[in-house]
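Researcher: I'd like a structural prediction for the single chain below. Treat it as a standalone chain; there are no partners to consider.
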Amino acid sequence: MRIVKYNNNNVYPSLMNDFFNDDFGMNLIGRNHSVPSVNSIENNDSFEIDLAVPGMKKDDFTIELNDKVLIISSENTNSNGNDNMRLNEFNYSSFQRSFRVPESVSLDKIKANYKNGILKIKLPKKKDSITKPNRVIDIG
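Model: Treating it as a single chain, here is the predicted structure.
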């Protein structure tokens, strides 16, 4: 299961939120949109970007590389045709996240994988930019 960053900036207390919520067919206060949480990791030979996006399919995502900017997006619609629904809290929002790709990344070898609610994008570094671990040199 994923943890999605949720920015709750409502000024009114919970009682007021409940009163003006969708139960009465109104949405006067409005809901904030959620954006997937991201982890960015740098290894010796690659960068990794992990997005927490559970409940989706790999076909729901679009990943583009545009002038050294990696754009990850998803467009979902909340199309539930049930007239008997009284409360609908499922969130099918669209999102877009952009990341500047460093010069050290081999652009041809970027790969993505979606498994267990995590979209993992691996950006391998070019051979000449891989840093070698520090070592101690013995003095003879």
